[in-house]
Amino acid sequence: MKNKKDKISLFKQNNGPVILLKECRGFSLIEILIALLLASMLLTMVVSKPVTDRQFLERTIDKVERSIRFAVDEAALRNVITRVHLKMQEEPQEIVVEFGPSDNFVLPPRGEESTVQSLAEEEEEQKQIEELNSKFQKVNELQDDKIEVDYSVRILGMALPGQKELSSLQSAAVYVYPSGEKDSAIIIFATSEEVVSLEVGPFGPIFERQYKLIEGEYDSQEELEERQFEIAKELFETWAKKF
Fold first, then answer.
1. Gap between the Cα atoms of 110 and 112, Å rounded
2. Can you give the pTM of this predicted structure?
């Protein structure tokens, strides 16, 4: 009996390092597979997290601001008038940076608009707009020659100082001059949850945003759009008082 205990003791002593090695062993195959599964689930949750309307809205406004800054640089580089053209009549709406002719090009009077026009006046105005648009070309150096507005965001309108209402049913543009000066303007965006105005200053990278939540529930898209334009009008009128 005594000899048997001694053998067991001796066996343990001889195999000490083996026991120590087992105590410090790495992860088993099952443990590794479980860890990979958990990591995969976590990554899927992060990637598949839906983008909110606010994020789409902020991205769109950021793109407009970057386009205006780019237009300022291009105006100085080319020594011509450039513009950020908001094509609100397109589906989807588009934002395009364009440059004008290099000769002594002078823009027609802008900013003063009549709220009531005859059919002949509307046709004449449309003809002038088309003639003006024909003088501008897309800036090919821009990574995207046009930026499409996301489906959840809508540009409701734009206005310059002196306008009596937003330009909302056709194209409009912020013009930039070789001197670095640009139009003072207000551009208004909307989602189903809020309306935001972007105020553009005439000098430097000056931008200011105003946010208005759309409160209440609406039974139809028409009712929602009506409320969006009511808020847009309020933001426009507040801005217009500054001039």
1. 6
2. 0.75
